[in-house]
């Protein structure tokens, strides 16, 4: 490993793990669109951190998610800002620009391969997803590479059957290493939050308040309610 690997990670805003030879490190990676981030994401990441003994969890908003190309998504900057706000008070959570700073469509396999090149071998990757995403992962581009490079953590999610995920993985014929994690049921989604914003309904206790403040200030998701201090406001 060239000695500038730590500088490279630092310049990419990634945590520096792996410096002590012979010691194993566990890097959690929480991928998602985070449009916007909510407590479902946060609780899954926190429990993966604590139950699997991870060193840190990096939240990585997708640049242009390959599976959402047909949908309107808030800008990478806005989704990153909200992710930063939501993770700021947790010392073992980090928000990363790794994917949003890349050109073009984002593929998880590319991201994981690039991370594998950046980190020493004593750093293990734990890619955290919900039960719905894990069932789809087998259809993702280069799924066998994902299996080679990372362990998977599948968090339970209301409305999504873990059996379906297990069947899909078994049917793939790919040797994924999956840990199934039972997290407290939060039947919330970013779609649900967007709908509530659009209708002028409260987001309190669904996402941290700074996220709500940000999305109103920046008029995301067609907010119908009027809030003071929005972008473009003229103070006379
Ligand atoms: P959308 O409704 O726009 O699809 P979402 O709530 O599913 O948004 P994503 O950004 O698509 O959020 O999800 C990122 C990751 O977080 C996925 O792996 C997803 O399965 C997981 N996840 C999202 N919400 C929950 C939840 N309530 N409980 C457990 N996992 C969740
Ligand atoms: Mg989703």
Quaternary organisation of the protein chains: single chain
Question: What structural class do you assign from the helix and strand content?
Answer: alpha/beta
Residues in helix, %: 25-40%
Q: Please indicate the percent range of residues in DSSP E strands (runs of 2 or more).
A: 15-25%
Gyration radius, in Å: 18 Å
Low-confidence stretches: none
Major beta sheet, specifics? 6 strands, parallel
How confident overall, as mean pLDDT? 91
Order of neighbouring strands in the sheet with most strands: 4-2-1-6-7-8
> Which of globular, elongated, flat, extended, rod-shaped describes the shape?
globular
Note the total helix count.
9
Helix-strand string: HEHEEHEEHEHHEHEHH
Count of beta strands:
8
Q: What molecules are bound to this protein?
A: adenosine-5'-triphosphate, magnesium ion
Distance N to C terminus = 58 Å
Summarize the structure.
The protein has nine helices and eight strands. The mean pLDDT is 91. It has helices at 5-11, 39-52, 76-87, 108-118, 131-137, 143-149, 162-172, 190-198, 209-217, and strands at residues 25-32, 56-61, 64-65, 93-95, 105-106, 123-130, 150-155, 178-181.
Commentary on this structure:
The chain is an alpha/beta fold. The longest helix is centred in the first third of the chain and has 14 residues, at 39-52. The strands form 2 sheets. A 6-stranded parallel β-sheet has the order 4-2-1-6-7-8. Strands 3-5 form a two-stranded parallel sheet. It is built from 9 helices and 8 strands. The structure holds adenosine-5'-triphosphate (ATP) and magnesium ion (MG).
């Amino acid at each position: 490993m060239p000695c500038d690997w730590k500088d490279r990670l630092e310049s990419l805003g990634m945590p520096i793990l792996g410096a002590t030879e012979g010691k194993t490190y566990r890097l959690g990676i929480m991928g998602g669109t985070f449009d916007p981030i909510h407590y479902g994401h946060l609780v899954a990441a926190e429990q993966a951190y604590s139950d699997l003994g991870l060193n840190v969890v990096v939240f990585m908003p997708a640049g242009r998610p390959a599976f959402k190309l047909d949908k309107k998504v808030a800008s990478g900057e806005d989704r990153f800002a909200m992710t930063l706000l939501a993770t700021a008070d947790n010392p073992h959570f980090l928000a990363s620009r790794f994917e949003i700073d890349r050109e073009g469509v984002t593929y998880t396999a590319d991201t994981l391969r690039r991370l594998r090149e950046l980190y020493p071998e004593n750093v293990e990757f734990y890619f955290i997803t919900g039960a719905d995403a894990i069932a789809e992962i087998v259809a993702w581009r280069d799924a066998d590479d994902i299996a080679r490079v990372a362990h998977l953590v599948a968090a339970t999610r209301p409305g999504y059957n873990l059996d379906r995920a297990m069947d899909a993985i078994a049917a793939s014929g790919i040797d994924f290493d999956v840990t199934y994690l039972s997290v407290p049921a939060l039947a919330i989604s970013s779609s649900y939050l967007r709908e509530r914003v659009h209708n002028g309904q409260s987001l309190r206790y669904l996402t941290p308040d700074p996220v709500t403040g940000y999305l109103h200030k920046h008029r995301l998701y067609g907010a119908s309610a009027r809030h003071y201090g929005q972008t473009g406001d003229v103070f006379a």
